[in-house]
## 1
Amino acid sequence: MLRLAWRNLLRTPGRSLVTGGVVALVVFLSLLFLSVYAGAFDAFYRLLLERTGHLLVRVEDYEDKTDLESLTFLPPSLPLPPGAEVEGVLEGGGLAIVGGRNRTVVITGMEPRGLARQQGLLKEGGLPRASGEALLGEALAQALQVGLGDEVVVYAPGGFGLGVYAFRVVGLLDFPETHLEAQTLMVPLEDAQALLAPGRVSRLEIRLPGLGLYDLKALEEVKTALAPHLQGLKVETWLEANPVYAALLPLYDTIMAIYVGIFFVLAGLILFNALYLSLVERVREFGLLAGLGLSGRRILGLVFWESFLLVGVAALLGMGAGLLVHLELADGFRLPLPQWMLEQYREFGLPEVLYGRLGVKEVLLTLGYAVGVALLAALWPGYVASRLEPVEAMRYVP
Amino acid sequence: MSLLKLAWRNVLRQKRRTALLSLVVVYVTVAVLFLYGLLDGYGESLVEAYAQYVQAPVVVAKAGWWQDPDPEHGLEVLPTLAHPLIQAQSPRLSLYALLRSPYRVQGGVVQGVDPEGERALSRVPFKVKEGRWLSRSGEVVLGYRLAQRLDVRLGERLVVETGQGALGLEVVGLVQAGVGNVDFAGVYVHLEDARRLSGRGILATHVAVKVPRGQEASVAQELNQNLPLGLRAKGVWDLMGPIRADYEGSRLVYLPLMGLFMLLAAVAVVSTVYVSVRERLREFAVVESLGFAPARLAAQVALEAALASGVGLVAGLVLGYGLLWYTSTHDVFGPLMRLSVELLPEAGLSEHLYTAFRPVYGLYASLVVALSALLALLFPGRLLLGLEPSHYVKGE
């Protein structure tokens, strides 16, 4: 039956090639699309993870609290797994004033390790090494018209610290997002505490070595182990701490499935047409086969085999090409868009260089669609072929 | 006409086959219509958000302010803007300020506006969800999400501080516009208060101008030719932030994809026509031996392909426009847009997205008919051009 199906496909090489080509193209495009989108999504999330750490400890019900006093806490000592790093961060709003100019800023107090992590963003100058030194977003420095060595007065009322502090600019940071760059002021944690809340932090960031982007199960285990040691505090994974991003994750799978489905419906309709044409051309032949004793079930099987062979070979070719291109994408790629557009996309946290990702899930989704399409497209032509009356079919004139 | 009649009869000879290939064309037509409607609807929602809520259809400011939006580059004298298409204009003064409620401190951009002028210009005054719009100095209206963050309610006082001054203002209104920038970051104060807070002798930082929809770029361009030296006007598309790239990037990605869809549909049509031609080679040979030119036969095949795909196109247009009508009148994408606004509150996205509904989409979709006819001429048509009538008439 398999051989017969194969031979039948080769009898109309042009049509088989066109239909198979469409299926292969759809499989190829689906893999390409999934790889690019997963890469973009990963980049988006990786940036978030880098900024927040794997786990965050904050005060309980922080969402409902507004004043700095109830939002900050004295950092407790935590029993962490080996290699894990914990950093205290204190964040608050303020006004940076230089002469007649002022800009609203987010003051972020960081431990030396946290400040050192900003090295990659450093555009000019160095990291703060002493009290009273600050890193400014480049856009903020431009707006305030200050440079390295200049003084910025930060006014931050509403806390229970000094409320006013003078910093010397020692470094300028280049963030992908201009709106973030325009309000970033990073200072040593002790300075931020003196300004806003002595001895306190607004969050603890925990970074765990060797954990991938979506290793959420391992994070849950650490989280469970930490929970009993946190009185009045709450530990969350980086995704829980960003609920909007967490809501996007399941939505992403659905949207991708719909997108790929749109391609495959088209391929399925074209395949359906091809199988039906093939049936119409061979009505007399099917009648003869039935007359010679081939059961309706076996005729149905023949049509299915033709569909599966055509889709199978095409899907393999498409997948081969798709995986080859994906390997290239996995090494890093730029979206084929004008430079100004890529720069604008950076404003949403999407870096210019992305890394394609194809997981088993994505490959199975594509294969699942291909198999589904082969099955559905063959159903009706197969049914019609299996129900042909031999005598009538042999007399059939198109 | 007889050629058309003949082609139509041939298309109807195989009703089931025609129906099947029409399915492909229907699908592609619906996809083309919907995607165009969605992309244009997205663009329109951005224009609406920026022109009516976030900015204005046209904004005039000093060239220096466009580079460095600081009150230092504000307007000491308000320019006289004359253009027949200007429907309203009003000065605005934007400032960076610290907002202090009894519980919380947050930075933001304060928009100093003329309360009455703003009514003629923007939709924000009409989107007050609680309380009322500004009427005099000493008042502030906030985006409702910002008010939640600041934990401030109607009647309470909010301190607005700049490096040059501070004012305690009464919260008189909360705005819910369904546009991220307004709801999450909108701070509207009386122009007089903003002037005081700026600490400079400026009257405004820019002038917002209302012009008819679709005329923003041309009015800005024409204004630029007559504006006093140092002033520059920008239309709404130039006022958009990075979100414009998302819209234009989407067009760059999806429009070629639609082209590919149409090509594949045309290929499906042609492969059916090819089988139909092969079945009728003897018929064509007889017709040719009766004096029909091969080119005419090829034209008939192209016409058959066009008619067969035309049937699908008509059905697709009915379905596609039905879908567009529904999505242009119902907020189907609302939940997705609300999530996007939460994710990117300062991108200028609107919480609602309605697809656009334009007759021209039908013209774009009809390209599939032209493509089908062209491909039919190239492939099955070529079969007829090389036909040897004697060979087929004999029945070999």
Note: The mean pLDDT of chain B is 91.
## 2
Amino acid sequence: MSSVLENLVNQPYRHGFVTDIESDTAPKGLSEDTIRLISSKKNEPEWLLEFRLKAYRHWLTMAEPAWPNVKYPKIDFQEIIYYSAPRPKKLASMDEVDPELLKTFEKLGVPMNERAKLAGVAVDVIFDSVSVATTYKQKLAEVGILFCSISEAVREHPELVRKHIGSVVPPGDNYYAALNSAVFTDGSFCYIPKGVKCPMELSTYFRINTQESGQFERTLIVAEEGATVSYLEGCTAPKFDSNQLHAAVVELVALDNAEIKYSTVQNWYAGDENGVGGIYNFVTKRGLCKGVNSKISWTQVETGSAITWKYPSCVLLGDNSIGEFYSVALTNHHQQADTGTKMVHIGKNTRSRIISKGISAGQSNNSYRGLVKIGPRAENARNFSQCDSMLVGSKCGANTFPYIQVQNNGATVEHEATTSRIGEEQLFYFASRGIGAEEAVSMIINGFCRDVFQQLPMEFAVEATKLLGLKLEGSVG
Amino acid sequence: MSAVGAKHPYIESLLRGYEMPRSGISWLNERRAQALERANALTVPTTRDEEWRFTDITPLTRVQFQPAAGAPRPAMADLSRFIVPEAAARLVFVDGAFAPALSVTAGLPQGVVVSPLAAALDAHAWEIEPHLARHAEYEREVFIALNTAHLRDGAFVRIARNRSHPAPVQIIHVSTRKEAAAYPRCLVIAEAGAECTLIEDYAGLGDAVYFNDAVTEIVAGEGACVRHVRLQRESGGAFHIATCAASLARNARYVSHTITLGARLSRFNLNVVQQGEGAEIEMDGLALISGRQLADTHSLMDHARPSGRCQQAHRCIVGGAAHAVFNGKIVVRPGAQLTDSAQQSRNLLLSDRARVDTKPQLEIFADDVKCAHGATVGQLDPEQVFYLRSRGLSTERARSLLTYAFAAELIDRIPVPSLVERLEETVLAQTQGNERA
């Protein structure tokens, strides 16, 4: 690897600062008391506390999954702070938001006011675990869309939350989903009523601030019949030497003819170049195409986290429903990613499409793990999957584990995978055209990821392109 | 000396009455003892084990199998349909025991040894010692451990340096007895520059329920070439669990054709390790199953050294309520640059109760490599069916012809003409059988 490539990859983490805000923090450790504390702090109804306790009791009986292709020291769940909130203060408008906090967002490059206005984006900001402010709520309320923190939704619309929470990812679904169900502190809730097309992109920004705090947010999006919504999520965290756990659950429900598009740009702190620190990102994301002709589309750009372990999935229950998954996962230094998707075809004429691009650099390890399952009643189901890997440097690894399970002979499933690298010859060609190595790498990567970037909303696409460039600085040469 | 004291009751039952085969060769006694120790310690895999996720071997564990003793000897006439006329040498094992009367080992050219393993141990010990039970790892696989603990006899084929032996060597394992367990074993050594063709044939006479736990080890020296045809045509009630471990030196070539037709439940592990630079591998696999059969193939292509090339094609044709499983793993180790490895898994489902689970898997730790895999599951292309119908064929006939063609593409590549002919007949009969069903 030449020095140009090396410098390219070793760009320092730009979002690594700690915001000093007084926060209301629960003592370390996990027990039924911790859960009761969280529940009481948030003034939750009894059924939710029951939901949490049930999940917790189930979690106690479960074992940490060993099958992902990632290595990390055992997590001590008693060393984690499960609740950390900025001191409560009633916020009437954005102007009342803690200036420290606003500065944080500025440093992150998300000046909320401006960005919201310019881009027409409504941002629900999750800082550690409590939603700080929600903009554009008014405008959304006019068309009947509910977009608020999940805690607020529990207070204001308990019947909706109660109906859908845990319906896609049951509390005992897997180890981390059970943990999340027990201790989730906040997250976003979005409800699009029947026939409404959401007039703007909805967006959430997550940030983990306190050292040793785990972030357990929970997102629930429900699109009623004929509703359409596009939802964006971005994530960052400051630099700490210790590892932080992030175990989120995202549930999407699409009813007849509804469409949900969910995009993520994940740039949690990935640890330093020696693999010290960084976020453990163990996330369960699942969408349920409950109604006929419904559609759920996941787009993700995963560049951060020391370890990523997530499989945004679609359960295609309704006839003619469509699931899509577009992913770019980039790993560098000692990062490990085991990510992919699950497409579970249950209804007739269901279709799914998977495009996954994995880029590994440094000493990182990048795995695609996917499942395409065609149930016995999924007549005429169709799937196309493509997962390509690119290796930058000779010390990294790229793996693919696609599971294909077919129980219906009317189904057509296609899967393709390739592996390639940025070769000396390609760089030489660029050089002969007067394009330096860094720019050449950035162009090659962008070409490689084009199919996925095209799916991102415009501003995110620009950001993602830049992010990949930054992440890879110094890895080619 | 280890004694039987298995952790798992089923393994205990398989080892009931076990007596360690005695021989004066200390290294062999030692390996058997170690294998027995592992068999005692390991448990029967369940669907909770990733490697056995889709293959539930509970039906196997419901039957008590005992090693066959004093089995009836079939006559030559019973075997005639299995015999390949091109073969220059033939070893026949009946229910795991060598049958000299049915075998042909005479008249081989110098440098070519085809012999029962037990008889070869004295004369060829120095050649056998570095390889026997050294490539098929009994440390982790209970069925390899069981086979190795029972290692008494087997087939031994050795081609000396730079010798070419173009006529195929056929090894037939015939099973006749119900509720008998056999542990077939085979060791093939092709020295540097040697060339040979091996036909390994597992056949059942009658419809008995029996269990074959087979292990084959193949060693190809520098620049050697081994062609390996493996036929699994066990009886419809049989259980067949087998491992073939091939180790390839620099520039060696290994071409394998695996045909799976029989057994109620079969599992075949094909583990190929490229130990030297520039080895070349071709792996064809065809499973043609129906009824309630389950056929599981797990292949591992381990590119441990640079510049290896591998082409793999695996096809399953699944009718009735049968279930085909394929797991094809390609590993490119750190430093194995310039590897070129490609894998295709294609599956045809002929009925609405048929099921396929396929998992191609790439694990790549070197950057200058070309690796690709593809997998498809589907039914026959309606346009092709339509085309044949426009030529006057009935839908059923068009379908069976296309199914036949799907299989014939792989069968045609088998380097033994008489076998190609007979297999194509088998496939045709079966696809027409499906036609009627």
Note: Chain B has two domains: 9-276, 381-437.
## 3
Amino acid sequence: MNRQHLHLRNARLIDPKNSLDARLDLFIADGLVAGIGLPPTGFAAERSIDASGLIACPGLVDLSSRLGGIEPELNAAVAGGVTSLACPPDSKPPLDEPGLVERLVRRSETLGLARVYPIGALTQQLAGEKLAEMNSLARAGCIAFSQAKRAIVDTQLLLRAMQYAATFGYAVRLRPQDQFLTGDGVAHDGEVASRLGLASIPVSAETVAIATALLLASQTGVRLHLSRLSSAAGIALIRQARRSNVQVTCDVAVHHLHLSEMDIGYFDSNARFDPPLRSASDRDALRTAVAEGLAAICSDHTPVDADGKQLPFAEALPGASGLELLLPLTLQWAAQEKLPLALALARITCDPAAILGIEAGLLSVGSPADVCVFDPDETWRVTPDALRSQGKNTPFMGYEVSGRVRMTLVGGRIVFEA
Amino acid sequence: MHNPQLNANGELTHLLSIEGLPRAVINHILDTASSFLKVSDRNVKKVPLLRGKSVFNVFFENSTRTRTTFEIAAKRLSADVINLDVTRSSTAKGETLLDTVDNLVAMHADMFVVRHAASGAPHLIADHLRRLGRNDVHVVNAGDGSHAHPTQGLLDMYTIRHYKKDFTNLAVAIVGDILHSRVARSDIHALTTLGAAEVRAVGPQTLLPTAIERMGVRVCHDLGTGLRDCDVVIMLRLQNERMNGALLPSAREYFRCYGLTPAMLALAKPDAIVMHPGPMNRGVEIDSDVADGPQAVILPQVTFGIAVRMAVMGILAGN
């Protein structure tokens, strides 16, 4: 596990950031990418790895992973090829105290698995009433601020939060969900919820919140990222804002690229998501937006134990385990849409890295050697035992997927090998 | 996707929803109910079909009336009936729904009659029993959230068939709070499966689910339009909590717009029948002159309900 001089041979190297897709050797020294194609002078490999038939790409960057038990989830991350992840502030207790953030950073550094980037609470206790100590939280290691799934109902406070964040150049991430329109809803306001008698969430819960956030963002000039878009109408608002040169980025959970309200079937609580799975045409619009590069892909990893899912649909906890499925589900989407691999990998490497503003998601000489080596054609079945995460909750349980991570490097160290 | 209420032979093993029930299964239940109706008229009101079987009425939500009709039906089939008012016992102590079920299975329950405030709770129980390999334990949904109340749907069909014989020429108006009504959803599925010519959903936009027309109904916001020349009127109960101003301004205004008065009923066919799942709010959704009038079949619905529930339990126990 030490920082070795590594020589990765015969891999197909895909680095979307540098528009690289070629069979080239990769040389790693002192935790950094030391050479691409050719070794640096005087390079002596301590280990040479034959990666014939495999793809090497930058380690994946995930915009939101809930960690719960830190060690198993970070093991799940590297098993899924994820080398950097942002952690939302709605842990217990929430990340609104610099001490908590420092502890999380220290703990993850000690583990030496995936790099963890905490997102601080925008308001104290995420209550949406008082601003959190953003500057102190940023000094402790927070790279952005959000309310996780909680809304700021008071729009004046939302304005103030954006103004204060903009003062220091901090990014604000919001989940666009109007609290009142969401109500006690648990499913998309459409055919399936109507048929099953489930309390529903209209698309306007998303679009109203997006419109509010966009207007306040352009007033304050804050760097705004909108998380987990779920609807075609929401995407349309973002597209329109970008045309008007509003600085806004967004992401879509990988599950939303594949599933729709129909997947609820007979009340399958593994298809309970927040925001909800919407109609098939919403899903198609999300797929298009990601293909265009308007939105990045996010695992929205949310481990939930069996007790939290073996409940009637409305009482079950939302979310799915996603870190280990991020790559296979992204590859599946790309294959279905007949998109180049480099484009697909950009959505889970350099795009999220740019959103987070971190030096990751690329393989330039001199950049940290965070690498994911995978077999794009190897298939595997999603089973509880196959997942390292403590969260066995996924609507893809039992599915056969392709894309198997064979090796993950963080800072030049092999942290996962299969 | 497999239908969780039918076994591999296509026989009914749970009654969870009318949705997905083949027409033949519905007709079989109604025919069986017809033969049980005579049992209730006899001096000795019992048949031994469920002798030695234990039926557990597990009500996570209070409903004395529905529970009683299931109890009577099970007793007329000679079952042992155990009533559990779970709202006041286990769940209050933190026991989960499936823990409760496991305990009752350990007590050798043969059938669960389940009422729950959450849509889909009976499906969860049926799925749990399937995973336990207990195909011999049956679940009857006695009402789950806003999702389904299949025995009410079936007794409504029994009532309509009794008075109208054939479904294919019927226009049926369902009036009121369809958004929160499990009865309405079960009736709509049953009517469309049995081939009713037209099903109308009548109510203000705040009480109609989104895309309800995808369930095969015609939406009418005007009561007069909804009632015109229809053969069957099903009035729904308006829960008190809906009248607090969030969905409707007041009970008075609701009655003015959607209350069934003799004048409004006159728009329907002269031989139209008026149904209500009970309990009625007189003066809110229905005028007493209609409720007590010659076209109302609300009390026969109750009588038929016992026979239909006997039929459901008898058929399940035999599969």
Note: The interface with chain A takes residues 1, 4, 19, 96-98, 116, 118-121, 123-124, 127-128, 144-148, 182, 185, 209-212, 214-215 of chain B (CB under 8 Å).
